[in-house]
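Model the whole thing, not chain by chain.
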Amino acid sequence: MTGTRGRPRNPEADRAILRAALDLFVEGGVEGTSIEQIAKRAGVGKLTVYRRWDSKEAVLAAAIESARDEIPETAPTDVADVPVATLIRQLLPGLAEAIAEPRLRAMIARVFGASVSHPELMATYWENYVLPRRRITRALLERAQAEGTLAADADLDVLIDMMVGAVLFRLVQPEPLDAAGARAYLESVYRSAGLLGGPE
Amino acid sequence: MTGTRGRPRNPEADRAILRAALDLFVEGGVEGTSIEQIAKRAGVGKLTVYRRWDSKEAVLAAAIESARDEIPETAPTDVADVPVATLIRQLLPGLAEAIAEPRLRAMIARVFGASVSHPELMATYWENYVLPRRRITRALLERAQAEGTLAADADLDVLIDMMVGAVLFRLVQPEPLDAAGARAYLESVYRSAGLLGGPE
């Protein structure tokens, strides 16, 4: 990771810094965040932050990276015998809970907002959150094609954008979804993409 | 509109203020914008701004509203005899040009970024940009259902989210689209939604 200096000397301070950085980013975006505020909220001196990272952007990228485990996987990888529709139905509740989480929603909105002025933050998000899930989803769609539930000539990259994009777009719309609403919404997205077939 | 005071006394100053506000918003988001900066860039005094709007958020909402004509309509409304696929093919070049425009891309990213901390800006964007186009798109999808190219039980709201969401998501991804790429992308989105049928 660029912008990181040396080995962590104090993992506990690092965790407090990353947590404070992510909170400030969620509250005020890149422009509403400063190294001073991060240090203050983490309860450390500015030098402690600068000893590890050389800019607020570098701290924010590390903070975004460190939060990646808060989103569940979009698909298990080792269940080749289970039909895709069944797999998706198993994943729905966990995914719905994750996307109904206000903090995740806020972080995603902020990453999007920063995409133009700070493409390196979007790149970090992209590499840590989007690409791994995209690879798994692509494999799932290829299996659906093999099963015959999805057209053989479907544009898989665009279909993934449509599914993910719908959810991301819905998340920033007025009137947020609760977990039950998120589940119904996800189900309709997967069904519209041709991945769920008829009712269970 | 909330936050606006009285009638415009100086339309030229108003235009300069709204333009400066939108530029600053695109460059630095809500948090990176202040009334002082807006006044300075517009070449007016702070009081001139405060005489018309009571907060930077109110100026930004008016600025977002004022830029709505920069996006072309997603569909003409008075061509009931033309098949949906033909209509969409006619609209594609203009839409592609609009979404390849860096300034529009940046504004959308910023509105999304502000959606959590400043829902009133998203509400302004929603009302002025999204809802009018959504109504037109919905009518188009209902015609496609009547024509039999779209399933009668399709979830139209989710389908609109998938089409719009894909484009918005693509706009903030690394490696921006040029006009030709945007056109190919839009075409694939409309085709994946079942609205274009086979090749022309």
